[in-house]
Amino acid sequence: MKCTAKEVLQYVEENDVKFVKLTFCDLFGRHKNVSLVSQQLPLIFENGYLFNSSAVRGFTNCAGDLLLFPDPKTLSVLPWRPQMGEVISLLAYIKRPDGSFYEGDTLHLLDAANQKLHKLGLTCEIATDCEFYIFKLDSDGVPTTVPIDRAGYLDCAPYDEGENVRRDIILNLEDMGIIPTASHHEEGPGQNEIDFMPTEPSSAAKNFLYFKSAVRNVCRLNGMYATFEPKPLENSAGSGLRITLTLRGIGDKPAAPAMLDSFSEGVLSKANDITSVLYSTAESYVLLDELRAPAHDSERRGNASGIRVLNYADGRRGIEVNSADCMCNPFLAFALLLEAGLYGIEKKLKLRSVAEVSDLPRNLSAALDCAEKSEWLGSVIPKEILSEYVRELRAERKAKNP
Questions:
Q1: In the chain, where does the domain assigned CATH 3.30.590.10 lie?
Q2: ω into residue 158 within 30 of 0, thus cis?
């Protein structure tokens, strides 16, 4: 629902809303929120909600307090919560007490990149194809690594035991105004995929965040456990994420082919710089070697590139990013893809003859080296934020492999 603050307050009053969740992502894509009693919302719209930023991973470089300010355009009802005493969620911008945006607010970074694109006469829509595993819980309700079925790619019920839970997930998402296009069983036992309609970048990132929340909550309500880890089972297929950007002109005005070429080449040229954001865990890089859907999918579609450019007959341009997984921060990932394209336009880059990239960093350490050395990335993400991102992921990797 795209509402004003006044309309949100009216909705709260008319629909017996008891709790309002202010939602944001930390730098690494972890879903965070604070739950407010609805009576506090008018005050929060005006003054924001003060939170302990030093306790949020990736925000420890922040000097001073930070505030959450709800974006009324992002109102979503959480249908898996009790119907009596409704619960709603609003994405929140992160600001300093003086009203300026916090440099690590990835929602703002994505909005800013999209606005730059519009000023150049281009519009972008983003679609995602998302994979995840569903496992059983033990008798104490603790997650196991036992898949809910032993089905394979596109198998049907009764072999596919995720069919009903996928249905429940999709119905919950539709109640939130998020429209999936398809779902099916994937290659691995208990592995599933849900695909989404293209939409403008901030909505696509918001939908991705709420999709993950819906999957986890609906699975738990059905006595199951869902994970978006890239490689939860050693001897089964990994779970990837396909991101497809579609570019065109604004309204009836077609986009200049040279500008589309430059944007596309910008994304291709900065692929190495942004890999550590698209693949943010050490386990993510196994997907580069698997060459499978949606992380490449070479066997079924002949696509062995991490990023490739697609031309559509109606003049639109597609950029398909296969080198990503669902552990990423979608706001940051989408922002960097747009900023890479904007860099290509600024430099008037010429699109290479083979419009794809397959030679990506093969592990997290190499990807972080690329990010750290990138002057361009340091100009897009404030250097102190980038330094903290790299430092945190290096520390995490070292802790797992001392």
A1: 112-400
A2: yes
Task: Give me 140's structure tokens.
Answer: 């104490």
Question: What are the residue ranges of CATH 3.10.20.70 in the chain?
Answer: 5-102
Return the CATH class of domain 5-102.
alpha beta
Token pair 């944007």: residue: 263
- Are the C-beta atoms of residues 320 and 242 closer than 8 Å to each other? yes
Residue-by-residue DSSP string for 289-348 = HH--SSS--HHHH----SEEEEE-TTS-EEEEE-S--TTS-HHHHHHHHHHHHHHHHHTT
DSSP state of 199: B
What is the structure's pLDDT at 305?
81
The label of the residue with tokens 């009903």 reads: 164
How far is 266 from 96, CA to CA, in rounded Å? 32
Q: Using CA atoms of 102, 108, 113, 118 in order, give the dihedral in degrees to the nearest 10.
A: -130
Residue 202: partners with Cβ closer than 8 Å, 6 or more residues away: 107, 110, 111, 114, 331
- Contact (Cβ atoms closer than 8 angstroms) between residue 311 and residue 317: yes
Q: Is the four-CA dihedral 224, 225, 228, 231 of positive or negative sign?
A: negative
pLDDT in tens, 167-180: 999 999 999 999 99
What's the CATH architecture for 112-400?
2-Layer Sandwich (3.30)
Q: Which residue has the tokens 């790619």?
A: 153
Q: What is the largest CA-CA distance in the chain?
A: 60
Q: How many Cα atoms are found within 13 Å in the side-chain-facing hemisphere of 312?
A: 15
β-pairing verdict for 317-321 and 241-249? antiparallel
pLDDT in tens, 371-396: 999 999 999 998 889 999 999 999 98
pLDDT at 300 over 70: no
Q: How far is residue 393 from each of residues 56, 104, 135, 334, measured CA to CA in Å?
A: 14, 16, 27, 19
Q: Which residues contact 49 (CB under 8 A, 6 or more apart)?
A: 22, 34, 36, 67, 68, 69, 92
